[in-house]
Amino acid sequence: MSLLHTAFRQLSARSAGLSLLSALIVAVPLLLTACGPATQTNTTCGSPSTGSSSASSSSHAVVGASGALAALTGLSATTHNAAKASTTASAPTPVTLGLTYVPNIQFAPFYVAAAKGFYQTAGLNVTLRHHGVGEDEFASISTGHEDAIFAGGDETMQARSKGLPLVYVANVFTKYPVTLIVPASSCIHSVADLKGHTIGVPGLYGATYIGLLALLQSAGLSPSSVHIQSVGYTQVSALLTHKVDAVMGYINNEALQFQAAKFAIRTFTIPNPQPLVSNGLAVTQSELAQHPDVVRALIAATMQGVAYTIAHPQDAFNISKQYVPGLGDSTQAATQMAVLQATQALWQINVTQPGYNNPSTWQAMASFLQKSGQLSGSVDATQVYSNAYLPAK
Predict the structure, then answer these.
(1) Where do runs of H (alpha helix) occur along the chain?
(2) What is the pTM of this model?
(3) pLDDT at 57 over 60
(4) Fewer CB within 10 A of the terminal residue: the chain, N end or C end?
């Protein structure tokens, strides 16, 4: 499950029209009230807590590259491919790009690339398609309804291990965005101190779970060394009410919620070199074979959107108001700008080549995911990514 998909699915279950961070900040006190007196975990290092598991659901939406919200209904792979094939040299090539969650400020580079005409200048007519309710992440691209997808490198490799011939062609999030969070008063001062303690995660899937496995490995611990508790997307309330000793969350989401709640925390990120690849652009092998120039143009224009967003965050924020419902609300502006600023630190900055995939990181990730049982079959890491379609240096 993608970065945004796993990080923010809780919004759809509670407040689909609200901005993500604001909705959750409002929801935290309500959750505390609804929960009533919490069962306290013993945070003394010698007396850790235990727990059980639960699940959560998701919601998605669709948005057009013109900036107006629109429903993409009745789209067929046949119609989509026919339109693409009939495009003349003078007309922009239609491209559908899958964004795997509801409209959100963290998609700002894509909104910027559309609104500023970067895609149009590159000869593309890009539709930004936010996924529908209950939709499998890779279903649309596997059936030809989408030409490209913004997804995690780890989940792209997982999909590849299941037989879907995806190729990850441009890295956008250069840092894996999850972090371990503990109260500032906790006796957990290092990842090694987690032994025997309870850690809350949304579930045994996605970036938060895979990130936790990587953290444990870095400290020489195994999953059996700790108590992993599925808490759905309630990490903030679970830690605030001491139901768990630690939680896994996102640097640009849960960590900000604790700050807004004025709850002092410590965080632990996956040490470098990180054996994981976060979100970027992926396409099918057939798309690469049939439309290599389209892929190159899509990458170049998207990375132009990333660069512009980093250089002009306020303008990018204003542009995103066209795409993200509720973003224009003045009461939400400060919190959503904080999300945008925190996300900037995760994007492609100061690298040799925008979008570049580090071969050693991909090989390390393949080994890690295989060893930790996260792949359905063996995968040749060199076949899952490519640097051949990136803009010239």
Answers:
(1) 3-14, 20-35, 77-85, 108-115, 118-121, 139-142, 153-161, 206-218, 235-240, 254-260, 285-290, 292-311, 313-320, 330-344, 359-371
(2) 0.79
(3) no
(4) C
